[in-house]
Specification:
The structure is a single chain. The protein is mainly β and about 450 residues long. About 35% of the residues are buried. About 15% of the residues lie in helices and about 40% in strands. The protein has an eight-stranded mixed sheet. Strands 19, 21, 25, 26, 29 and 30 form a six-stranded antiparallel sheet that branches.
């Protein structure tokens, strides 16, 4: 029981979900109690462990090779490999819209290069853990443990090669709020725990190697952090390696990768959420070439300066109200996305002046946004800050880089500042006022505006 307790403590200390190394398990204990615990095998040594981890977008592919030597008599060993998943019901009960947080894509085992059958056991609510370091809404989440059990037969003095291959969706929590324009998305978090393999012999692996391939994350310009295992060597492509001798698996050793790919998440969800483009009746501005803003051509760029304005008019549209036919529901533009800068080329984009702050009116109502001060105290303001825009990623997608001034819809912003407006008001005009540029010239450039 001591080994299991140590393992669970390690999981809790890392405040995350661990995809763990496997180890020998006590089958007699399982038959008696229905629970699984690791079993120390003093006479089988771990000669080599080669761990390969590759993260592509939200998926992690793992391949681990063990070379095991039987230093005792002929024997059979029940080997267990745990993969842990968050309890789906925990999130469903909170009404969260989440994608792909509880899926093992595949699991394969090979002994001496031959496919090996395995038994599959689910241990419900094995323990509780925090989903993320800073996620107050995901503390003490029940964890289900999925054991993959393999029978290994050893002749006296024999050496066996065991290979485990599997893929999992990295922990995440994505979705939309009721009135949100933008999706919410947590950081992605993958952890691989090395501790369970310490159940072989004295817990020392003679030849230990790790390859952590984060080339996809680097190529896509994701921000990521690696913690846990030390002395990893990085190359220019974003691949990390470690090769060492006599590695002590009994130490608190794990590999953790936490990364943020919000722009990709936004680019994935927004086309599904936004629906059809809103029809524009007319567009005018205080600077020439207002039509460049709605021509779907990134090579035509509107040029303005601080103090300039853009006015867009929309048709009045409604849908029937079955509860009260006299008052149909207005069909309004819900959001605007701004291609902030000159997107005709990457060179032009980098050098072009961009909007830093603006104001927006829906009809005659000046909309507000919520801002955070450094001391984490928030306030509402009519001046809307835009973050520094980004150039396209590997595959151009306007939904990844276009900026939305609001997290909620225009209608909800109207409702926040003027309760009488509510949903019965048609939004006929949207006005955008340029209040601050990021350039000393006070100029700005916009490639396109998209209304949905």
């Amino acid at each position: 029981m001591k080994n299991l307790i140590l393992l669970l403590l390690l999981f809790l200390q890392t405040s995350s979900l661990a995809f763990a190394n496997g180890g020998p398990i006590d089958m007699s204990f399982f038959k008696k109690t229905g629970n699984i615990r690791l079993l120390q095998k003093a006479d089988i040594s771990l000669l080599k462990e080669d761990l390969r981890i590759k993260i592509i977008s939200d998926t992690t592919f793992i391949e681990v090779t063990y070379v095991l030597k039987n230093n005792g008599n002929t024997q059979s060993v029940h080997y267990g490999f745990p993969v842990d998943m968050y309890n789906k019901d925990h999130f469903d009960s909170q009404g969260m819209l989440i994608d792909g947080y509880d899926r093992i894509n595949y699991f394969e085992a090979f002994v001496n290069e031959k496919p090996k059958k395995y038994s599959f056991w689910k241990q419900e609510n094995a323990y509780k853990a925090n989903m993320y370091k800073d996620g107050s809404s995901t503390k003490n989440v029940p964890i289900h443990r999925f054991w993959h059990q393999i029978n290994l037969s050893f002749e006296k003095g024999s050496v066996q090669e065991l290979v485990i291959k599997y893929a999992v969706e990295n922990r995440k929590e994505d979705g939309f709020g009721g009135f949100s324009v933008l999706p919410y998305a947590t950081d992605r978090y993958f952890v691989y725990d090395l501790f369970p393999s310490s159940s072989w012999s004295d817990g020392i692996v003679q030849d230990f190697s790790v390859t952590l391939d984060l080339s996809n994350l680097k190529r896509e310009k994701y921000t990521y952090e690696i913690t846990g295992l030390e002395n990893l060597k990085q190359n220019s492509a974003g691949i990390y390696r470690l090769n060492t001798k006599d590695f002590d698996l009994k130490e608190r050793s794990f590999i953790s990768v936490q990364y943020r790919n919000y722009d990709k998440v936004k680019g994935h969800y927004l086309p599904k959420r936004s629906g059809k483009r809103e029809k524009v009746i007319s567009i005018v501005s205080s600077s020439p070439n207002a039509t460049y803003l709605i021509d779907d051509d990134l090579n035509t760029v509107w040029k303005g300066k601080e103090g300039d304005w853009i006015l867009v008019q929309f048709p009045i549209r409604s849908q029937p109200n079955e509860l009260d036919p006299k008052y149909p529901y207005p069909l309004n533009p819900r959001s605007v996305f701004i291609m902030n800068g000159d997107y005709s080329s990457e060179e032009n984009f980098i050098s072009s002046p961009k909007i830093k702050t603006l104001q927006i009116k829906a009809n005659d109502f000046l909309l507000q946004t919520f801002n955070w001060r450094p001391n984490r105290k928030g306030f509402y303001s009519n001046f809307i800050n835009l973050e520094t825009p980004k150039w396209f990623y590997e595959i151009p997608n306007i939904f990844e880089v276009a900026q939305s001034p609001f997290e909620e819809t225009f209608e909800q912003e109207l409702r926040n500042i003027h309760r009488k407006a509510g949903y019965s008001t048609h939004i006929e005009t949207i006005a955008i006022y340029i209040t601050k540029s990021d350039s000393e010239s006070k100029e700005v450039m916009i490639s396109d505006l998209y209304f949905y």
